[in-house]
Amino acid sequence: MDYAWEKLHTAVLGIARSDDSLQVRLAYAYIGGLINIRPEETLPENLRPNMAEIHAAFRTHEAKGDEGGAMASALAMSDEDARATIEKIVILYDEIAQRSPFRR
């Protein structure tokens, strides 16, 4: 679970610190670490569906040219959908941070 905490922590900070659009922030957060979280290996069973929903949000569009599928999926999101996905990431981060002795 410490691995998931680390990746979610980095994602949340990246989303908060960036001046890019919501969609680009999400794409970088996902590509930069969230993509590597394997729920079945790193998360308690009750949190796995939350991460599965986040993964699914970045698998809705095919890659185009130099743009990977995660970026294409994020760029296709409305601001409302991007905010909802960010909220899911923050909620998952909070759940893991509350359980982790690794938290700061």
What is the N-to-C succession of helices and strands? HHHHHH
The share of residues in extended strands comes to under 5%
Structural class: mainly alpha
**The number of domains:** 1
Rg (CA only): 13 Å
General shape = globular
Q: Overall mean pLDDT score?
A: 91
Helix tally equals 6
How many angstroms separate the termini?
15 Å
Query: Can you tell me the residue ranges where pLDDT is under 50 for at least 5 consecutive residues?
Result: none
Query: Main beta sheet: strand number and arrangement?
Result: none
Overall number of strands: 0
How much helical structure, as a percent, in the residues?
55-70%
Structure summarized in a few sentences:
By secondary structure, the chain is mainly α. It is 65% helix and 0% strand.
SSE blueprint:
Blueprint (H helix, E strand, L loop, with lengths): L1 H16 L4 H10 L7 H4 L5 H10 L11 H7 L3 H21 L5
Helix pairs in contact: 1-2, 1-6, 2-5, 4-6
Structural summary, described in words:
The protein has one domain. 65% of the residues lie in helices and 0% in strands. It contains six helices and no strands. Helix 1 packs across helix 6, helix 2 (22-31) packs antiparallel against helix 5 (69-75) and helix 4 runs antiparallel to helix 6. It is globular, with a radius of gyration of 13 Å.
